[in-house]
């Protein structure tokens, strides 16, 4: 398989660029494209044996629909999208090629995938699945194979709830009108860790976080729980009910499962 060409649509920046570097290091020829750079989308589909789509979530389906019809049966169409349902179903629908959904559970700041989790959804996979697994395993990634539905359900917690929480805290800090420089002088180690995460979200690719939260079909359930929980906490705090709050925090069933 070493002689193959890998085309990454959205390979000029972000996660696509990270994977372009990765496959180049593995000895493959990698062609990258963006809106103004590289081959046009249909040509990528015709020319490359493996095509990877890595564009903003909200335009992923549109891009897949442009490349899918040009993929050959013996080729592989993949995506790196943080959500798997809609993109992977679009890949299945618009192409006759093999289809694998991939979600790297790490950001571009990492030097290597060693020790990091990667989700695979091999929905129409043949020879290419072993090829892909071998490369990822060789580089030390933890591979998790699952369905599109389970991936998106769990990502509503791992990413949706997680980022929603950070954004809520960041917005409250902003609304409070506090001077950040002064606030940092009073920081505890735990607060510093949280602040670093919030700053990352507010300054680096806000669109990605907004799309991860708004486009996951499972987020309405999380939001209902969030609202219910906050209102319960508000009631306890307003009543200064420290006993019940302590009991709620002490409830350990999830940590012991
Ligand atoms: N960032 C992460 O940490 C991370 C982690 C895991 C998964 N992902 C997934 O990776 C995908 C890309 O996210 P990202 O954060 O890497 O985004 P990004 O940094 O904004 O990069 C987006 C890429 O898409 C290209 N692009 C934008 N519109 C396009 C269009 N209409 N046609 C062709 N190319 C287009 C851009 O190229 P030009 O600017 O050159 O036009 C750029 O190369 C998303 O699906 C995201 O969920 C991201």
Account of the 3D structure:
- This protein is of the alpha/beta class.
- The protein is 54% helix and 14% strand.
- A seven-stranded mixed β-sheet has the order 2-1-3-4-5-6-7, with helices on both faces.
- Helix 3 (57-67) runs parallel beside helix 4 (85-94) and helix 6 packs across helix 9.
- It starts with a strand and ends in a 7-residue tail after the last helix.
- Residues 9-10, 12-16, 34-37, 54-57, 59-60, 63, 80-82, 104, 107-108, 205, 208 line the site of NADP nicotinamide-adenine-dinucleotide phosphate (NAP).
How many structural units, i.e. domains? 2
Q: What about the largest sheet?
A: 7 strands, mixed
CATH architecture of the largest domain: 3-Layer(aba) Sandwich
So how many helices? Answer: 11
* SSE order: EHEHEHEHEEHEHHHHHH
Radius of gyration: 21 Å
Can you give the mean pLDDT? 97
What general form does the structure show?
Answer: elongated
List the strand order in the largest sheet: 2-1-3-4-5-6-7
> In the CATH hierarchy, what is the class of the largest domain?
Alpha Beta
- Spans of 5+ residues with little confidence (pLDDT < 50)? none
CATH superfamily of the largest domain: NAD(P)-binding Rossmann-like Domain
Report how far the terminal alpha carbons are from each other: 43 Å
Proportion in helices: 40-55%
CATH topology of the largest domain: Rossmann fold
What's the topology here?
Layout: E1 5-9, H1 14-25, E2 29-33, H2 41-47, E3 50-53, H3 57-67, E4 76-79, H4 85-94, E5 98-104, E6 117-124, H5 127-138, E7 142-145, H6 148-176, H7 180-185, H8 189-203, H9 206-214, H10 219-238, H11 242-250
Parallel strand pairs: 1-2, 1-3, 3-4, 4-5, 6-7
Antiparallel strand pairs: 5-6
Helix pairs in contact: 3-4, 6-8, 6-9
């Amino acid at each position: 398989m070493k002689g193959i060409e890998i085309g990454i649509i959205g390979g000029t920046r972000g996660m696509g660029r990270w994977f372009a570097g990765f496959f180049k290091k593995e000895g493959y020829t990698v062609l990258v494209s963006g809106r103004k750079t590289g081959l046009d989308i249909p040509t990528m589909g015709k020319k490359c044996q493996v095509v990877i789509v890595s564009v903003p979530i909200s335009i992923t389906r549109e891009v897949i629909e442009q490349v899918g019809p040009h993929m050959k049966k013996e080729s592989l169409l993949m995506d790196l999208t943080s959500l798997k349902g809609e993109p992977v179903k679009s890949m299945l629908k618009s192409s006759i090629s093999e289809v694998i959904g991939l979600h790297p559970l790490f950001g571009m700041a990492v030097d290597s995938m060693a020790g990091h989790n990667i989700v695979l959804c091999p929905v129409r996979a043949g020879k290419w699945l072993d090829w892909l697994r071998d490369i990822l395993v060789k580089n030390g990634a933890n591979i998790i194979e699952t369905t599109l539905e389970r991936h998106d359900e769990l990502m509503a917690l791992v990413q949706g709830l997680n980022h929603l929480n950070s954004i809520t805290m960041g917005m409250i800090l902003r609304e409070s009108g506090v001077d950040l420089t002064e606030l940092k002088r009073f920081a505890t180690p735990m607060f510093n860790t949280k602040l670093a995460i919030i700053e990352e979200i507010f300054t680096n690719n806000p669109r990605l976080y907004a799309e991860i939260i708004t486009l996951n079909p499972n987020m309405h359930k999380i939001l209902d729980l969030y609202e219910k929980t906050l209102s319960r906490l508000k009631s306890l705090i307003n009543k200064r009910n420290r006993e019940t709050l302590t009991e709620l925090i002490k409830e350990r069933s999830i940590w012991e499962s």
